[in-house]
Each structure stands twice: as structure tokens, then as C-alpha cells.
């Protein structure tokens, strides 16, 4: 059966790009429907994230004039991840079979969507859009991104390299995603936790065709820190490790002090001072690390994430 597709697009002050975005997506949906890839009544869901410009009035106009457009307006600016989640939720409640998320500026090539739908029809629940290269990004953005992915991997956070929030999810994957009730959303870290059969589709990332990035450096850093602190307690373990390192240094100094006492080369007062600095420092860090371990546990409990996700059972009795 052909899937009913929803394309969810978070929009924040995007009046400059919206007309072109809606135009291109309408053509895409029409072509895909004509090709027999998707069912009629597929939609794009434009989520206005509390924009201050004409974004919402444009969305309202389009939902009257273009049958494929559905509009959702958030009461205030809640951030990209929350706006996306709002759109996914609406798509879930409207029971679309497959749901694609993409940014309003269409930096991610929408021609990858038909391929995503093909993977979905072959039985994949999650299809990641992965950038082939970052040629259009600045060297700074490229390098910081590379550093970030490497760091995340080292910290043990599962994430897909060069994948942002451009992906297709099945209805059941989105339903499961909605079980993750945490406030600090970092979707590209949560989605890999869902499991299911996944696939990747590669595409070229373009430059923004109009308007400017809504992700200045400050927001990017916040997002990165959020990604790390929402998934990893390793930084706390590092504090504990540092405590032990300090104690070890104290021990080395002790050996040196004993040695200089025996040699008679010691300076009065120096030994007790330097030893206490490293020893007390080490003890404080270990104490902090231990408290941190408990705080880490609390944080994992508070998130209240699902423990598992059942994909199938073999019981076919319908009673
Ligand atoms: N966005 C949003 N709320 C915000 C910031 C951004 O909904 O508070 C949307 C924005 O309209 C766009 C997407 O998130 O559709 C990605 O933003 P942008 O293209 O500016 O980020 P970049 O591609 O520069 O990382
Ligand atoms: Mg962009």
C-alpha cells in the first residue's frame, strides 16, 4: 500500500524562503503522487515557531490556497527541536504513515525524499539523510562540526555522522519517539536509541537560498552542550578520574619529600604546604565525582525514557 506522507517543516522568521519552499515541495509531492510513490492526501506541515515576521500569515494563506499545506502555530518561540517535535506530534495524531522532517531553507536537498520513501516502502522505519560533503559550509562550521561528532562519539553518544534533522520516520517510530518525554531535546541523539531497521540516503547540502541562519554561534554552542549533557555522564566520571590523578600526584610529591628529608635538602614549610594542596584538592574532586555519580543517576531517572521498544511479537491470535 502506498504511504501517506507528511513533510514537517519548522519555520522561524522564514518569510523570505517560504514561497519558494512551498512551491518546490508542492511540485515534489505532486510528482511523487503521480509516480505512484505516495498516497493522495499527503501533506506538508508548516510549524511556525512563534515568528515575528509575516511567516504565519503566509502559512495561513497557503493553507487556504494549496490543499497540501497544513499550518501549525506555536504560541511563542520554542526553538527548532521543540517546533519539530510539535510538527511530528501533529503528524502522528493525523496518522500519516511516513513523516519526513526538513528545514524551511531547503539546504538539505529535497530530491532525496523519493529515495527515502523507497527505503521506507522496503521496510525501513527510519531513513537518515546524510550529507555527502560540506563543501558549501564555511571551514569553521565544517571543523567545529567534525570536532563535535568526534567528541560525541568519544562520550558514547550514538549519533549518525553528518546527519542533521533531515530524516524519514514511520508512524510507529514517531509514536515511540513521543515516549521520550525529556525537555532538553536533542533529536539526533534520541532517534538512534529507538532501534528498528534503518537506512541512509546521501545528498548534497546546498547553501541557504534566502534569509539568514537562525543558528548563530551562541545557539550552536548551546545546542552542542545540550547534546552532550543530555546523553552522557562521562564528564562527571572525568571529575572523579581527575580526583584520583591529583591523589596520585600527592603520592609522588610525598616520595619526593621523604627523599629530600633523608638527603637533608628540604625547605622548611614547603613539604606540608604542597602536599596538602594536592591531597585536599584530590579529596575534593573525588567527593564531587561521587556526588556527581548520584546526580547522574537522578538525571537518568528523571528523564523517564522508555527502557525498551518492542518491534514485533510472534503472537498472531487476535483476541
Ligand atoms: N528554526 C526554528 N526555531 C528557531 C530557530 C530555527 O524553528 O528558534 C528553524 C528554521 O526556521 C529552519 C530550521 O530551524 O527551518 C533550521 O534553522 P537554520 O536553517 O537557520 O539553521 P542552520 O541551517 O543555519 O544550522
Ligand atoms: Mg539552514
Number of domains: 2
Largest sheet: 7 strands, mixed
Distance between the termini: 25 Å
Structure summary, number of beta strands:
7
- Which fold name is given in CATH as the topology of the largest domain? Spore Coat Polysaccharide Biosynthesis Protein SpsA, Chain A
Name of the top-level CATH class of the largest domain: Alpha Beta
- Name the poorly predicted regions: none
Give the name of the CATH architecture of the largest domain.
Alpha-Beta Complex
| Relevant CATH superfamily of the largest domain | Spore Coat Polysaccharide Biosynthesis Protein SpsA, Chain A
| Total helical segments | 10
Physical arrangement of strands within the biggest beta sheet: 3-2-1-4-6-5-7
- Mean pLDDT, all residues: 90
Structural class: alpha/beta
Structure, described:
By secondary structure, the protein is of the alpha/beta class. The protein has 2 domains: 5-231 and 306-313, Spore Coat Polysaccharide Biosynthesis Protein SpsA, Chain A (Alpha-Beta Complex), CATH 3.90.550.10; 234-303. 49% of the residues lie in helices and 13% in strands. It is built from 10 helices and 7 strands. A 7-stranded mixed sheet has the order 3-2-1-4-6-5-7, sandwiched between helices. Helix 2 links the parallel strand 2 (43-48) and strand 3 (69-73). Helix 9 packs antiparallel against helix 10 (270-303). The chain binds uridine-5'-diphosphate and magnesium ion (MG). Uridine-5'-diphosphate binds next to strand 1 and helix 3.
